[in-house]
Design goal:
By secondary structure, the protein is α/β, with parallel strands linked by helices. Helix content is 39%, strand content 16%. It has a seven-stranded mixed sheet with strand order 2-10-9-6-5-3-4, with helices on both faces. A three-stranded antiparallel sheet has the order 8-7-14, with no helix packed on it. A three-stranded antiparallel sheet has the order 13-15-17. Helix 3 (57-67) packs across helix 4 (85-92), helix 3 (57-67) crosses helix 7 and helix 5 packs parallel to helix 6 (139-149). The longest helix has 21 residues, at 374-394. Bound molecules: pyridoxal-5'-phosphate (PLP). Pyridoxal-5'-phosphate binds next to helix 3 and helix 4.
Length: 395
């Protein structure tokens, strides 16, 4: 029977299993030494001064918005071409959400659109920039803009663990916080590394890091020197409304073990992207590869193929053609501003943001994950080609 190929999946090996079982046999299941070790390894990877491992990427975004004091009466800006959580974190914190379109050259938040928004409507309190498919948003330009207009910047690097970009001759890691107030990662199983569920908040600001830690643990302060009333060694005080957003030692052991293979995962993803690009170049009149701007080295999270020309409105047919062959593509993403919640509750106009609408209408994500063999990729390529050939015969 032909094996089903999904658009993304984890690769768990014996080292990962050993790392997790060691924790299970030990004294700590929740907050133990693996949490600190995972956080330190993420600091090494990115250069961020502070990393807080949390329950998932959505919790990381929620905490980022709360730590920046985003709340009722504030306005937050998100790109529409992203997973719901990039915008939801703003709404969860109490803000009104608005959307700025993406750049057609990168599919990441458009610097011009954010600037235009600030000049015409006034600056929002916060902007979320997403490194779409692992390609870094133009973070240096957005960070400049944030200082010029006075908004805070969150980098949603859920797709971009392992991605880097160049800035003033230096390599900068996505998630480093070099060009944001706070950055977040996700370690969901389809992401670049996994801890099953998991996420992280990264920053260079010690006060923000301390606030994130507090908010992730019920808003509790434990440091005896900071308590209003010290009654004994058990004392802790809740100073603000927080959550249980901690990540367990079990999850962190898996994440840490996976992180050791990030370079190999990244290299394999790049090989598969090259293989797809070469193959689809044969049909450059109707198939366009994902944009890959110069000056960055993405850890490709998604391979988003665009249908162009006469194929532009045949996405559903290609989807069904692949599904019939046990290949399960995915669509990234229905633009968030078209979701009923944002139309009904935040006044979003589903006709806005034409670039995001256009990308959504004619793209399909092909399977891309490190455990894929060349033969798996060739199966996808053959299926896409057979679809294109059949279509071309009809013209
Ligand atoms: C861009 C983006 N941001 C945030 C998230 C949320 O991450 P998680 O699933 O770990 O909550 C995702 C996950 O799919 C994502 O793709």
């Amino acid at each position: 029977m032909t094996e089903s190929l999904s658009y993304g999946r984890q690769q768990v090996d014996d080292d990962d299993i050993k790392a997790v079982t060691e924790v299970l046999r030990g004294d700590w299941l929740t907050t133990g030494p693996a949490v600190g070790a995972f956080e330190a390894a993420l600091e090494d990877l990115t250069g961020a001064a502070h990393v807080v491992a949390v329950a998932n990427g959505t919790a990381a975004l929620h905490l980022a918005a709360l730590a920046l004091d985003i709340g009722l009466g504030d306005l937050g800006l998100s790109p529409p071409l992203t997973f719901l959580a990039s915008a939801n974190c703003l709404a969860m914190a109490g803000a009104d959400v608005r959307f700025a379109d993406v750049d057609p050259a990168t599919w990441c938040l458009s610097v011009e659109e954010v600037d235009r928004y600030c000049r015409t409507s006034g600056p929002p309190a916060v902007v979320v920039a997403v490194d779409f498919a692992g390609v870094p948003a133009d973070l240096p330009a957005l960070f400049d803009l944030s200082r010029k207009h006075g908004f805070r910047l969150i980098e949603d690097a859920a797709h971009a663990v392992g991605s880097t970009y160049q800035f003033e001759g230096k390599t900068v890691a996505c998630g480093s916080g070099a060009h944001s107030d706070l950055a977040v990662f996700s370690f969901h199983p389809v992401k670049n590394i996994t801890s099953a569920e998991g996420g992280a908040v990264l920053t260079n600001d010690p006060e923000l890091a301390e606030r994130i830690r507090r908010l992730a643990t019920h808003g509790l302060v434990r440091d005896p020197r900071k308590l209003r009333r010290y009654e004994g060694p058990w004392s802790s005080e809740m100073v603000e409304l927080g959550y249980n957003y901690r990540l367990s030692d079990v999850h962190c052991a898996l994440g840490l073990s996976q992180l050791r293979r990030l370079d190999a995962f990244k290299a394999r993803r790049a090989e598969l992207v090259r293989r797809y690009n070469q193959a689809f170049a044969d049909h450059a009149d109707v198939l366009a590869p994902p944009p890959w701007p110069a000056g960055c080295d993405p850890c490709f999270h998604l391979y988003v193929l665009s249908l162009t020309g006469p194929l532009a409105d045949r996405r559903l047919d290609l989807f069904m053609h692949l599904q019939d062959r046990q290949i399960m593509p995915q669509v990234h993403y229905r633009p968030v501003h078209t979701q009923p919640y944002y139309v009904d509750r935040h006044g979003a106009d589903p006709e806005d943001c034409p670039v995001s609408l256009d990308v959504y209408a004619r793209t399909l994500s092909m399977p891309l994950f490190p455990a894929m063999s060349d033969a798996d990729a060739d199966r996808v390529i053959a299926a896409v080609r057979s679809f294109v050939k059949a279509e071309k015969r009809r013209w």
